[in-house]
Structures are given as structure tokens and as C-alpha cells.
Design goal:
The protein has 15 helices and 2 strands. The longest helix is centred in the middle third of the chain and has 33 residues. A hairpin with an 8-residue loop joins β1 and β2. By secondary structure, the chain is mainly alpha-helical.
């Protein structure tokens, strides 16, 4: 009876999302539902995928999502470009392939967690092909728009829209390893380094999309109306940017804490009987991300060069921990803003708990708490499945 009640409750939640007005909200609903604890049943995930996605997987829905994200001139009814028949045929084909790729992505999200990383490679391959197509299409459309609507340009619009999905998949792939307990604690430093890299790309993509959207809205606008356009805030992008920057700050803060543990001797790199840290690093990221042109897959040499661990090891422990404290405090500020914007989001309170707890631990450790202990710290993922709270022992 308990299981039946749980399934009934899940199906009720799914039904509550069937009236969502656009694709953006639908995608967020599917992502959020798939991350629930305990993991949703096969029945509820199948129902979610079939009924909600099928009702939104239209060309019009994809076009609207793209228009709202970055406002490409080819989807702007005010431009001559949007009325050209050959341009619309190009776009029809592009959004048809995009629908197929997003269909694969949604099927992946609704699968059992243990299958995700294995099935991700085929989804990545499809998005890689679509990414190349979007870049070529942007170039072609930019050449056309220069003759039809000189005040506009079409550089990077469709590719930026698609890049947003690619980056979301990359974040999912990297962080899923924590949920599936694939990473050893000795790998946490470079995994959070890589997540920091991807989160940086997400922030840049969101900011660039907002910038070009405003540029498109400014075209043909004169006088005081320009000021209104520039001041206009896209709440969805503001929320996404705050959340991304909070996760990036937590990733960096955890990196700093791990570095302090290596300096103090609480953590040491293991001696590998087979393989090496380089081979582990390459195995984690290269097979999955090598297909993407943007962002390019990072290498172990780039990791070593950017981190400069020899320089880090020469710094006082307290200095490194103060860097960590600042980063967790920065994440805390962003998450407190998000609590007001997203009062019902279940992830924000758990991230806020991680940021607050780790800030306290970093402050205590910087003040000398447990400084003499050489026992390895504990990384507790009970508050959040991807970002642990740290316990000194």
C-alpha cells in the first residue's frame, strides 16, 4: 500500500505539470522531477516523458524557446529575413533535428540513473552533430541578414541556444558521478575543477544570450525606449545565472578546502598500482566530451597548469581556507537571493545548507580547529547529492 500511495502521489505531481505553457517550463519540470528522492518509479517517469514531452515537442515550441532565449533575427517577425522561404526551410530542418536530439535527451533523463553515463555518449554524439549544423546555419543566415536587414546580425544565435543544452548535459554527466559513487575522494579536486570550468561556460552562455537578446530588441528602437530595454530583466535567466554561480562558487570552495587538506597532510594522493592520475582524469572526461567543439574537452596538462599545485602547497593553510570561506560566503549570498525568487525549489535550501556548513568549517579550520589531526576529513553527501558538507575529524 505504501508503494501504491507513492506511485499515486508521483502521478499526481506529473498531472500537475501537464498544463505548463511553454517548453522551457516543461524541460525544467522534467529535470526537477527526475532528480527527486526517492527516485521516481518507471511508471511515473514513462508517463511524464510521453504525455508532457509529446505535447511540447512541436516545432512552434522549439522556436518559441529559442526566441525567448536569445531572440535570433530569423525568428523575429519584424525582419525581412524571417519571411524568406528558403530561410524558413533551413530553420524547419534545424528544429526538426533539434526536436529529435531533445527527445533523446529527455529519454535519457527519465532512464534509471545507472544507465545514464552509458547512454549519454550516443546523446552527446547527436548533439555534437547538431552543434556543427547550428554553427554553419548561423554563418549562412548572417550572410543573408546583412543584405536584408543590415541593422541585425546572426552570429552565434542558434549555436548559443544549442550550447545551453550541451552544457546542461555536461553538468549532469560530471556531477552524476557523485550520485553513483563513481569517484574516489582523491579525484574530487579535479572533478570540481572540471565542474567549475563547465559552470563558467554556462554563466557565459546565459550572459551572452541575454546580451544579444537585448541587442535584437534595441534594433529599430529610439529614444527613451532604449533605456527600458536595457533595464529589462529576464527573471528566468537571472535565476539560472544565480544558481549556476552559486554552484560554481561551491565547487571552487571545495577545491580550496581539499588543497588545504593536502597542505596539512590530512589528505594524500594515493600511489597507483595500475594506471595513474592522468589516466583516471582522461577516462573521466575525454570519452564523453571529445566530440564537442564548444566547450573543448580539458586535458590533464591544462589541469596541472591552471591549478599549479606546487604554488598552492607553498601557501599557509589558513590563507587557502580563507579563500574557501569567501567562496562559500559568496555562494550563500546568491542562494539567499534565490530563496526569495524560488521559495518552493527543493534544491536551493540543500545547497544553502552546504554553503553555510562549509563556511563554518572553513572558518574553524582557518582558526586552528583540529590542526594537529592527520585524520582524513569526511565528505557527507546527505544534504546534497553532488556537493558535500565537510567534517573535520
Amino acid at each position: 500500500m505504501a508503494n501504491l500511495s507513492a506511485v499515486t502521489a508521483e502521478l499526481g505531481d506529473v498531472l500537475g505539470t501537464t498544463q505548463l505553457p511553454n517548453l522551457a517550463l516543461t524541460l525544467d519540470a522534467v529535470w526537477n522531477f527526475s532528480w527527486r528522492r526517492p527516485f521516481p518509479t518507471v511508471l511515473s517517469r514513462s508517463y511524464l516523458l510521453h504525455f508532457i514531452w509529446e505535447s511540447n515537442k512541436t516545432e512552434a515550441g522549439l522556436r518559441e524557446h529559442c526566441r525567448n532565449f536569445c531572440a535570433p533575427p530569423s525568428l523575429n517577425s519584424k525582419t525581412q529575413l524571417s519571411s524568406k522561404g528558403d530561410v524558413q526551410r533551413y530553420l524547419d530542418e534545424f528544429f526538426r533535428f533539434s526536436g529529435q536530439a531533445l527527445d533523446d535527451m529527455l529519454q535519457l533523463i527519465c532512464m534509471q540513473r545507472s544507465w545514464h553515463r552509458q547512454k549519454s555518449l550516443s546523446v552527446f554524439a547527436k548533439f555534437s552533430q547538431l552543434q556543427e549544423q547550428s554553427e554553419h546555419l548561423d554563418i549562412s543566415l548572417n550572410d543573408i541578414v546583412q543584405t536584408t536587414d543590415p541593422e541585425y546580425h546572426h552570429g552565434g544565435y542558434l549555436s548559443s541556444w544549442l550550447l545551453h543544452f550541451v552544457l546542461r548535459l555536461m553538468c549532469h554527466y560530471v556531477l552524476l558521478g557523485f550520485e553513483l559513487e563513481l569517484y574516489h575522494s582523491c579525484e574530487y579536486h579535479y572533478v570540481y575543477w572540471y565542474s567549475d570550468y563547465v559552470f563558467g561556460w554556462v554563466s557565459g552562455c546565459l550572459q551572452a544570450a541575454d546580451k544579444v537578446r537585448k541587442q535584437a530588441e534595441l534594433a529599430g528602437v529610439k529614444g527613451s525606449k532604449k533605456t527600458k530595454v536595457l533595464k529589462k530583466v529576464d527573471k528566468d535567466k537571472e535565476v539560472a545565472l544565480l544558481l549556476t554561480q552559486a554552484k560554481q562558487a561551491i565547487s571552487r570552495g571545495l577545491m580550496r578546502m581539499i588543497e588545504s587538506f593536502h597542505i596539512s597532510g590530512k589528505m594524500t594522493k594515493p600511489t597507483f598500482l595500475y594506471g595513474s592520475e592522468r589516466s583516471r582524469f582522461d577516462h573521466r572526461f575525454h570519452p564523453a566530451f571529445a566530440a564537442f567543439e564548444r566547450p573543448q574537452v580539458r586535458t590533464y596538462d591544462q589541469y596541472l597548469e591552471q591549478v599549479d599545485i606546487k604554488h598552492v602547497m607553498d601557501q599557509p593553510v589558513a590563507t587557502v581556507l580563507k579563500f574557501a570561506l569567501d567562496l562559500f560566503s559568496q555562494a550563500k549570498l546568491n542562494l539567499e537571493k534565490l530563496e526569495k525568487l524560488l521559495p518552493e525549489d527543493p534544491e536551493v535550501p540543500s545547497l544553502l545548507k552546504v554553503a553555510k556548513t562549509n563556511a563554518v568549517v572553513a572558518k574553524l579550520a582557518a582558526g586552528g580547529h583540529k590542526a594537529d589531526s592527520k585524520e582524513a576529513p569526511e565528505f557527507d553527501f546527505s544534504a546534497h547529492r553532488h556537493f558535500p558538507t565537510v567534517r573535520l575529524r
